[in-house]
Amino acid sequence: MSGRSACRRNSALILATVKRFRHFTRFRSRLLFYIIGLLLLVLAGVFVVVNHIFRQNTEETIHHELVVTERVFLRLLSERSQDLSQQATALASDYAFKRVIATQDHDTITSALINLSARAQADAAFLVALDNTVQIDTLRPEQAGQAFFSPALLEQAEREGVASRLMLVGRKPYQVIVVPILAPEPIAWLCLGFLVDNPVLAQLKQLTQVEISLLSEHGQTLQVHATTLPAPTPQQLPLYPVQSDGFFWHTGQERYLSRLVTLEQQADGKLVALIERPWSKALENFYRLQWLLLVIALFSIGLASLAAAWLAKSVSKPVQILAQGVQAIGQGDYRHQVQIDSTDEIGQLGLAFNSMGTQLLEKEKIRTLLGKVVSPVVAQELLNHELVLGGETREITALFTDLAGFTNISEQLSPQDLVALLNGYLTEMSAAISAHAGVLDKFIGDAIVAFWGAPVTDTAHAQQAVACALAMQRILQDLRKDWQRRGLPLLYMRVGINTGLAVVGNIGSIDRLDYTMIGDTVNLAARLEGANKYYGSGILISEFTYQHVSGLFACRELDKVRVQGKQQPVAVYEVIAEHKQLSVRQRQLCSGFAEALAAFRGQQFQQAQGMFGVLVEQHQDAASALYLRRIEELVSDGGRVGFDGVYDLAK
């Protein structure tokens, strides 16, 4: 009996368990469970990923800001050194002080030196004889008669006229300035020392918004001399690598991210600055965002749970199928067909839905074909292949044109006359592009964008582009004659050409796309078009295009430029004419300009100036006039140090 009772109890327990979880076998319950579970996983993953990425980016930003702060700190020290050097130079020129030195009276000179240092607010003053012996030392009078503590500083002052260095004097950091006392030849050295203490660092902190400590390296420790950190501050730190990207150290309860910057290397050690930023303060924004993400996640979970419960309660399988179909149609998938195995109203609705999708697909095909205006070669390529989004990397030659001063011309004409003039110009230029097997990409106002080498492969794409540019200039010259007879404004065109790798293909969206090009090659071509105005040229090409066309077209190298965001300079050339059509005058201009450019790059500026001057006088050459202005700037600035003949190409 007891066995039967136990069996009945077990059976009842199983039935109760099945009844309890019977509702979970329903589609609505499973759907609700899966949606909420998936949402929790997604939100948790997003939270973890975003939290990790933002923390990583925050730490990288803080490290970068510390590097930038280091540069600002060094620049501020340099500016302070220049200001103090100017003050010292002015004091060394004091006539009364020179007369006192001439008296050779030690007490009188000492008094005058103390007064002079007080005027400069210096903390120490030294008068050093030309044989490097200290005559007067206001900081350590007993050092008088001994050798000056920094002969290298005197040698620098003798070479450069003034010397400044941050160094330890009597185991304290000073900004030491040395200038000669001239009468008119040097008769002595004036040396002023400005103590770098906590108030000085406090001023630098106001400008940099970071904590700064000044330390000296002795052996394996760093000795603190001045700091903006709150007391108590450790007086010694372990020796860290000076060139490290940053390290952490603690003062009391605060953790700092720090960088060591070497300020001065001396025989008995180094003088370094410790630039520090509180880590907790730097991460304040991160912690605020972390809480915000958590609140948003909890709110999203609650809102999505309510929506999932309502959806699971109200939906049914046929309606789900239709909803998926509607969603597919809404996303542009008009080939989507629903499968509903029923003959009732839901089945009829499914048939009507499939018919609607077929009709929309046909209309979409017509709309797509009518909505695209492309070059004939591109249209043929698109019709022969299935239309898909995407691109491929090809070597192409890009061409950009623009009209000089078109804004001013547009203000002189009525809208109707302006459109007629522009349409005539664009028609002729488009015909020239087509005649040279080019792809007309787009019109941007009066500007034209075209390219060669895609979609049909053409190994002579660079030659075709340059030949087209020359043809366009010739056509425009003929148009100007007609416009002049009709009393219309005359248009002048600038052309930029570049050859290289670019992404070409159908770029845009499912609803609207262009067969176009993107990449650095395209950007440089656009830059070259605008640079024509700077050089006074009509057609500019890059060195990459020149490598392809130098055998067919006469070109002259105008410059070497550095494009924004790139380190490698690029040579730019002006296209003159085909070799067989080059005139004697043009040949003389090219050879003369090449010789003058070589002299300029060889820093033979006087010789280059004469050669460029002849070219301006004989040929009215705008590029030569530009180099004359450059030579004047270089000579007036006296700046040949670091000269490499490369100039930045503006946007």
From TrEMBL:
Boundaries of every HAMP domain copy: 313-365
Residue ranges of every copy of the Guanylate cyclase domain listed in the record: 397-529
Record's keyword terms, sorted: Cell membrane, Membrane, Transmembrane, Transmembrane helix
Keyword Transmembrane helix among record annotations: yes
UniProt record, GO biological process: cAMP biosynthetic process; intracellular signal transduction
Segments passing through the bilayer: 31-54, 291-312
Major location category of this protein: other
GO cellular component: cell envelope; membrane
Pfam family, any one: HAMP
SMART domains linked to this entry: CYCc (SM00044), HAMP (SM00304)
Subcellular location(s) of the protein: Cell envelope
InterPro entries reported in the protein's UniProt record: A/G_cyclase, Adenylyl/Guanylyl_Cyclase_3/4, dCache_3, HAMP_dom, Nucleotide_cyclase
Gene Ontology MF annotations: adenylate cyclase activity
Family: Belongs to the adenylyl cyclase class-3 family.
Name of the protein described by the UniProt record: Adenylate/guanylate cyclase domain-containing protein
Annotated source species: Methylovulum psychrotolerans
Lineage per the UniProt record: Bacteria, Pseudomonadati, Pseudomonadota, Gammaproteobacteria, Methylococcales
